[in-house]
Design goal:
- This protein is of the alpha/beta class.
- The chain has 11 helices and 26 strands.
- Strands 3-2-1-7-19 form a 5-stranded parallel β-sheet. A 5-stranded parallel β-sheet has the order 9-16-10-11-12. A 5-stranded antiparallel β-sheet has the order 22-23-26-25-24, sandwiched between helices.
- Strand 24 and strand 25 form a beta hairpin.
- It binds flavin-adenine dinucleotide.
- The site of flavin-adenine dinucleotide has 35 residues, from helix 1, helix 8 and strand 22.
- Keywords: FAD, Flavoprotein, Oxidoreductase.
């Protein structure tokens, strides 16, 4: 009997690595539908677009790692179903038995549901194959419209503007990165991108993509304006790949639902990373996170649990980074539901931290250009030390000293 991991991405590869590190000596099969070995996605919206970095630099591990650790890597292979009674996963023309099954299937771009979304030159950005096409199209593009002002949209817009493209960014909500960051940080990024030449249009969505001979030529926005474009990138969120769980009768609601130990209601099946919704110890509510830290830490937790049998509650602090061409945002914690913000430093200097409080408790710290404060925030939010808004507002307050 073996462990089968579905999804050879950030989380899947880490489960396999942790299993071996923890001394697991049974067979491990890591199955992924993409043709490439597990790779880093973050560079796809950043340095990779600027080339000429080779694709092997993206790989999480050398192929020899899988060989040396007897991890069977099956690429270009879809898992099409789970038979829970027989404890088998279905691949095309084959069934594979498991003792433990880890679903690490990630997420896919939410399609832009407007007429013209199928025109040439309209691209999402999730996979290496998306990024290859985008990089090729970037070379000849003059006017670019980015639909969606989340992390990936802003990273791409910053790269395109730095390369001299005319960039318009449409965001239907009234602020950028609306879900994961505080208003103060949204405002800073809207100004910073505008200063770097991105035409940021808030409260403005795309209603139609216009084209000629099958290729996109522009975007009609909700305010009636038409923005010329020979390249449109869509970044309007993702949909978790939870179908395998759903078809197998597992609970699914914006992700495969797992318990505090990251296990589904079936004790043999775990779900982790972008595809899983788990009860967060830091939010006291179920949450689905899309970040490298979340994928890696949940994978390490699950690998340890399978290898050692140790059942613990998953408690890792969520943290995140986004590089927007010279502006680095680092987030510790989750600001969801915040009701008070205190700033350390001045956004006008391009270096500051926003401390987000909920009901008088520090819940997140969003730092721009202040890496040491970010690390201090991670220490603080992982500890039992309480920081009140009053203490944070004291003139002599220093986050690094307080968290030391
Ligand atoms: P994935 O890495 O998506 O891996 C899931 C894999 O499973 C995929 O290869 C998928 O095709 C495969 N799969 C799905 N269904 C099946 C099936 N039925 N059979 C076989 N295979 C299947 N995070 C950060 O923290 N910082 C960043 O700066 C950052 N930048 C990003 C930039 C981009 C462009 C993108 C797309 C993401 C970025 N992220 C960033 C997010 C981060 O990369 C993801 O949160 C992380 O990759 C999630 O890992 P995962 O293993 O859960 O999913």
């Amino acid at each position: 009997m073996s462990t089968v991991i579905v999804g050879a991405g950030q989380a899947g590869a880490q489960v396999a690595a942790t299993l071996r590190k923890e001394g697991y000596d049974k067979p491990i099969t890591l199955i992924g539908n993409e043709p490439e070995p597990p790779y880093h996605r973050p560079p796809l919206s950043k340095a990779f677009l600027l080339g000429p970095a080779g694709e092997t630099a993206l790989h999480l591990r050398d192929e020899s790692f899988y060989r040396d650790n007897t991890i069977e890597l099956r690429l270009g292979t879809w898992v099409t179903g789970i038979d829970r009674t027989a404890q088998k996963v279905r691949l095309t023309g084959e069934a594979l038995a498991y003792e433990h099954l880890v679903l690490a299937t990630g997420a896919r771009p939410r399609p832009l549901a407007v007429p013209g979304a199928d025109l040439g030159g309209v691209l999402p950005l999730r996979s290496l194959s998306d990024a290859r096409e985008l990089r090729a199209r970037m070379t000849s593009a003059r006017s670019v419209v980015m639909v969606g002002g989340g992390f990936i949209g802003l990273e791409f817009a910053a790269v395109a503007a730095s390369e001299g493209r005319e960039v318009t960014l449409l965001e239907a909500a009234d602020r950028l990165m609306g879900r994961p960051v505080t208003e103060q940080v949204s405002r800073y990024f809207a100004d910073a991108h505008a200063e770097r030449g991105v035409r940021v249009r808030l409260g403005t969505g795309a209603v139609e993509l216009l084209g000629r001979r099958g290729e996109v030529t522009g975007v009609r926005a909700t305010d009636g304006q038409i923005h010329a474009a020979d390249l449109v990138v869509t970044g309007v969120g993702v949909v978790p790949n939870s179908e395998l769980g759903e078809q197998a009768g597992l609970a699914v609601d914006n992700g495969i639902l797992v318990d505090a130990g990251l296990r589904t209601a079936d004790p043999r099946i775990h779900a982790i990373g972008d595809c899983a919704r788990f009860p967060s110890a830091h939010l006291a509510a179920p949450v689905r996170l899309e970040s490298v830290q979340n994928a890696v830490d949940q994978a390490a937790h699950t690998g340890r649990r399978i290898a050692t049998g140790e059942a613990r509650t998953y408690r890792e602090l969520p943290w995140f980074w986004s590089d927007q061409k010279g502006i680095r945002l680092q987030i510790a914690g989750l600001s969801t539901g915040y009701d008070q913000v205190h700033l350390l430093g001045d956004p006008a200097d391009g270096r500051f931290s926003a401390l987000a409080f909920r009901a008088g408790r520090l819940v997140a710290v969003e730092s721009v250009g202040r890496p040491a404060e970010h690390l201090a925030a991670r220490r603080l939010l992982s500890s039992e030390i309480e920081l009140t808004p009053v203490r944070a507002a004291a003139p002599d307050f220093d986050l690094k000293t307080f968290a030391a």
